[in-house]
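Title: Comparing notes on inverse folding

I've been comparing how different people in this forum approach sequence design from structure. To keep things fair, I'm posting one structure and asking everyone to reply with a full sequence. Here's the target:
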């Protein structure tokens, strides 16, 4: 070996740095490049939740609910991690129990975490970490429908129950070897994550009940700059969300990242343009909603569609969810009867279904083959393999649409029914909704804390330490006598 250009070069494999060769802690099956990217991608996914959605939720709600909303996200992130490694990972990706779920088991032992993952070239620990990030953000997205009134004790019970009885079913059914896996195109979670969170959030919002009347009529964001910061974490974190789905540093990962940002930018611009055209004023909240619908819509097809298709998907994700949220929601008695705080049904369920259906149309057989191979044991090989052999440009799109609709129907019905049962069960133990007196107060009643403990917020006198530093020549501040 020689030292050349700051790298050790191996004569047996010329040009390959020694650091990339197998060693005692990295067996030959472990691809160090893939593992490094996967750890990075998984961390980007987790950053979408903490701090991304923590900041977004904390800034997007009324000031009196900032702490509660952010804390709901933080709690869910921690609770999902423990449930994931104790039983939920194996229910999602483990040994088959039946056609919709795996056998519960620990994902904690060295004998499990340090073996090849189902994709063969990264450790199982890496795979568990990445899939945890997906599970956590699903529950946190669901929380967006429930902000501003759910009893925190009820939320503490809801998170592990919903993860166990809903998320694991969707993940196993479509990704883990269940009955829908051979038929459904869901590259990174349009159905498993976004449709399920949108439907479950809307359903839970029905059972929890509405916010306080005044809050529902007047619910301005308390910090738009923080809201934009959280949205930025969400958008940039999606690089790992879709870029990590192939579990390899390959052409599909690169294409998925480019498609993700193209679709998102298009969707945001379309949403803002519609706001300008119909309301004569652009909205920061609207821009964030358009950003989210673009991210959601491209997710089920990010690595298997062409960039021009991503532009079409972005155009539709910026317009159809805009219509359901801004027009249909206000006219529909059904939507008005359920208080979906942040409109999660529109941004995730509607955009998720839209993306899933469009992925069935635009997915290219050549890209599907690169992603899954033909007839593989772990991807949608059966249907994809048939389409790859068909020789048509985009496969049998109409036939695939039928499978996509069936998958969407299963996820929708399962989440609506089981989420209802979970809420009914919890409601028999604790109140799902905070009482009216606490709803009027908000964070101080729920947690004994306020988001902004600033001087002057209800205080009549300056703190002694601050009073000593103010000149006697300035007897008043903002017209109020303090000295």
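Reply #1:
Here's my take.
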């Amino acid at each position: 070996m020689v030292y050349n250009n700051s790298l050790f070069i191996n004569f047996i494999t010329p040009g390959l740095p020694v650091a990339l060769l197998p060693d005692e802690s990295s067996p030959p099956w472990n691809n160090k490049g893939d593992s490094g990217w996967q750890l990075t991608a998984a961390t980007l996914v987790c950053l979408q939740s903490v701090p991304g959605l923590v900041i977004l939720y904390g800034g997007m709600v009324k000031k009196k609910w900032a702490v509660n909303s952010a804390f709901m996200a933080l709690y869910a992130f921690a609770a999902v991690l423990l449930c994931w490694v104790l039983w939920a990972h194996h229910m999602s990706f483990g040994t088959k129990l039946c056609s919709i779920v795996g056998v519960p088991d620990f994902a904690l032992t060295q004998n499990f975490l340090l073996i090849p993952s189902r994709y063969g070239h990264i450790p199982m620990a890496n795979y568990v970490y990445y899939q945890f990030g997906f599970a956590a953000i699903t529950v946190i997205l669901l929380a967006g429908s429930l902000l501003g009134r759910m009893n925190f004790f009820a939320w503490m019970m809801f998170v592990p129950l919903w993860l166990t009885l809903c998320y694991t079913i969707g993940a196993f059914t479509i990704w883990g070897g269940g009955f829908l896996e051979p038929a459904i195109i869901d590259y990174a979670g349009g159905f498993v994550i976004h449709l399920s969170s949108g439907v479950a959030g809307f359903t839970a919002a029905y059972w929890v009940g509405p916010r306080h009347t005044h809050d529902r009529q007047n619910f301005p964001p308390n910090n738009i700059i923080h809201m934009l910061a959280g949205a930025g974490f969400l958008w940039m974190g999606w690089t790992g969300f879709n870029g990590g789905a192939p579990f390899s540093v390959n052409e599909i990962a690169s294409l998925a990242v480019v498609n993700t940002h193209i679709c998102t930018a298009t969707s945001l611009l379309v949403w803002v343009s519609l706001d300008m055209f119909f309301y004569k004023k652009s909205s920061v909240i609207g821009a964030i909603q358009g950003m989210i619908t673009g991210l959601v819509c491209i997710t089920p097809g990010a690595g298997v569609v062409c960039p021009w298709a991503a532009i079409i998907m972005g155009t539709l994700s910026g317009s159809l969810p805009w219509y359901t949220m801004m027009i249909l929601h206000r006219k529909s008695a059904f939507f008005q009867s359920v208080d979906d705080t942040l409109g999660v049904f529109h941004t995730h369920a509607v955009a998720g279904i839209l993306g899933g259906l469009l992925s069935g149309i635009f997915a290219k057989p050549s890209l599907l083959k690169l992603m899954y191979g033909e007839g593989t044991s772990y991807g949608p090989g059966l249907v994809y393999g048939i389409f790859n052999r068909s020789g048509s440009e985009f496969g049998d799109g109409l036939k695939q649409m039928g499978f996509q609709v069936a998958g969407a129907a299963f996820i929708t019905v399962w989440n609506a029914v089981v989420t209802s049962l979970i809420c009914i069960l919890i409601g028999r133990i604790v109140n799902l909704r905070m009482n009216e007196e606490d709803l009027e107060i908000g964070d101080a009643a729920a947690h004994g804390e306020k988001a902004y403990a600033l001087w002057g917020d209800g205080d009549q006198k300056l703190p002694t330490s601050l009073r000593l530093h103010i000149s006697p020549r300035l007897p008043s501040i903002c017209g109020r006598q303090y000295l």
